[in-house]
């Protein structure tokens, strides 16, 4: 039909160059094909998926869900056709694309339903061999990710292990590809260990943290093998794998440092943060990456100070931790500031505002602390609209929100696991929602009483002379609101004998 040939012409022209009008025209033509019960040939099906999926990945169009919806519609319509007429290698490829599209849309239930129909057949067919085993490994890892999100932890672990095992006997000439996939699997397994602990124990156990650290450490060592490999031995893949390996190694050491900090193994955490900083100084990294490492160093010293406040007197040695935290946070601030000046699309992270607020308060500068926390609250409320999960940032895509905080009615979650993570402070090391919730509730009350607070400009607050801050300082209720939050950060576990030795709080300005 005319619609089919128009669709064919559109897909074959300018492969990899997709505009908004191009996508809309493709969708319009495909709707007509569906109405006429017409199907695409395998050549056109594969070309369509490659064209639109590649464009989505290359351009990073997270705000264009219609691309993924289009991909899913085509694959679901041609499911039986693909099973009957497409070779197993391409079936694995299309299955992986389907799961990736579902992940981008946050629709893990659809990915699971599709997998339950398709995956057993793929596994049965793969027993005959005759295809690149990497396709099977990628499909196994993708299904393991889906199972992890849906709480099927045993299945997730099984498929990760199976994928890892297949790679052990892979040919020497593809050794770097094998190592790269193994490093990715170990990285994902570390995350699975933490999520599983939250799902089953309602908290992350020490054993789970140590197990995750071991897996990140193994992933880091595998990445180092790729980095150290001689380019001449693997000319076809070496250059394409080195940069992702360095980035993964950076994140491995950063995450290990965070977990060591939660275990209060401060020296180990400091060692891995130093490694993170050194990796971040590589030419492939930006000032933002260096600033992020410095920011976590500041957070580590601050956590150490807070932890010591609960067990020892506020002595000079513990005070040094607070000073070091302030120095590292200031360096991080400078790095973010330089990056934002060089690229207007880069902004100082909201976490840095909150860290500086915490440090300023315990240094005795309440005025500065309130200034930074107000900026953080403004950014935080803008970042957590009801259309996305506050823990994992996964979009809800206008679905019914089942999980939210009934106390503040300001944060929403995609699952019970994410709600637990936020409450315990596992989603981001800075804020446990159980501590931050009262502040959010009071902030909403403040914005309701004074609507101009919601529309305030961060730069006006940042100069420290804003009338908004003076109004808050003069209002005892809201000043106490901020002070209660800051004081809740103290993890005081004491008895009457040691109570007198603990710090009594910062001096008020």
Task: Jot down its keywords.
single chain; 509 residues; mainly alpha; 23 helices; 2 strands; 71% helix; 1% strand; globular; disordered C terminus
What does this entry look like structurally?
- The protein has 509 residues and is mainly alpha-helical.
- 71% of the residues lie in helices and 1% in strands.
- The chain is built from 23 helices and 2 strands.
- The chain has a two-stranded antiparallel ribbon.
- It is globular and about 75 Å long.
- It starts with a helix and ends in a 10-residue tail after the last helix.
Give a count of the beta strands, DSSP E runs of length 2 or more.
2
Q: Please give the radius of gyration in angstroms.
A: 26 Å
Output the strand order for the largest sheet.
1-2
> What is the arithmetic mean of pLDDT?
78
List the helices and strands in order: HHHHHHHHHHHHHHHHHEEHHHHHH
The helix content is over 70%
Low-confidence stretches: 15-21, 492-509
The helix tally amounts to: 23
| Amino-to-carboxy terminus distance | 78 Å
Quick recap of the structure?
With about 500 residues, this protein is mostly helical. About 70% of the residues lie in helices and about 0% in strands.
């Amino acid at each position: 039909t005319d619609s089919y040939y128009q669709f064919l012409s559109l897909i074959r022209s300018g492969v990899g160059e997709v505009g908004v009008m191009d996508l809309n025209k493709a969708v319009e033509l495909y709707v007509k094909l569906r109405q006429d019960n017409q199907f695409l040939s395998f050549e056109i099906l594969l070309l369509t998926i490659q064209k639109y999926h590649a464009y989505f990945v290359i351009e990073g169009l997270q705000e264009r869900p219609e691309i993924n919806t289009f991909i899913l519609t085509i694959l679901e319509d041609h499911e039986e056709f693909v099973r009957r007429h497409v070779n197993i290698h391409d079936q694995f490829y299309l299955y992986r694309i389907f799961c990736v599209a579902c992940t981008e849309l946050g629709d893990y239930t659809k990915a699971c339903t599709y997998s339950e129909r398709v995956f057993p057949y793929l596994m049965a067919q793969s027993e005959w061999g005759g295809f690149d085993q990497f396709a099977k490994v990628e499909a196994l890892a993708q299904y393991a990710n889906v199972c992890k999100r849906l709480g099927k932890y045993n299945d997730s672990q099984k498929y990760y292990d199976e994928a890892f095992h297949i790679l052990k006997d892979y040919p020497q000439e593809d050794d770097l590809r094998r190592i790269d996939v193994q490093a990715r699997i170990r990285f994902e397994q570390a995350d699975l260990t933490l999520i599983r602990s939250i799902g089953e124990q309602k908290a992350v156990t020490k054993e789970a943290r140590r197990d995750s650290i071991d897996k990140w450490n193994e992933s880091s060592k595998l990445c180092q093998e790729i980095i150290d490999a001689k380019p001449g031995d693997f000319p076809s893949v070496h250059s394409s794998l080195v940069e992702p390996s360095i980035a993964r190694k950076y994140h491995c050491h950063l995450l290990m440092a965070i977990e060591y900090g939660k275990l209060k193994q401060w020296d180990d955490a400091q060692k891995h943060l130093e490694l993170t900083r050194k990796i971040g100084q590589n030419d492939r990294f930006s000032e933002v990456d260096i600033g992020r490492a410095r920011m976590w160093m500041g957070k580590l010293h601050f956590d150490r100070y807070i932890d010591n406040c609960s067990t020892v007197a506020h002595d000079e040695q513990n005070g040094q931790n607070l000073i070091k935290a302030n120095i590292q946070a200031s360096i991080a601030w400078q790095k973010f500031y330089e990056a934002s000046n060089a690229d207007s699309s880069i902004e100082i992270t909201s976490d840095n505002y909150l860290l500086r607020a915490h440090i300023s308060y315990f240094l005795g500068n309440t005025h500065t602390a309130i200034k930074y926390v107000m900026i953080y609250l403004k950014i935080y409320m803008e970042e957590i609209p009801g259309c996305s999960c506050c823990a994992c940032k996964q979009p809800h895509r206008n679905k019914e929100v089942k999980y939210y905080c009934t106390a503040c009615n300001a944060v929403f979650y995609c699952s019970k696991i994410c709600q637990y993570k936020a409450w315990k402070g596992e989603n981001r090391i800075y804020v446990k929602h159980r501590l931050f919730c009262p502040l959010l509730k009071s902030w909403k009350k403040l914005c309701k009483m004074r609507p101009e607070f919601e529309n305030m400009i961060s730069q006006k607050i940042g100069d420290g002379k804003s009338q908004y801050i003076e109004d808050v300082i003069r209002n005892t209720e809201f000043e106490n609101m901020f002070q209660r939050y800051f004081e809740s950060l103290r993890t005081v576990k004491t008895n009457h004998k040691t109570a007198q030795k603990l710090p009594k709080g910062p001096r008020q300005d």
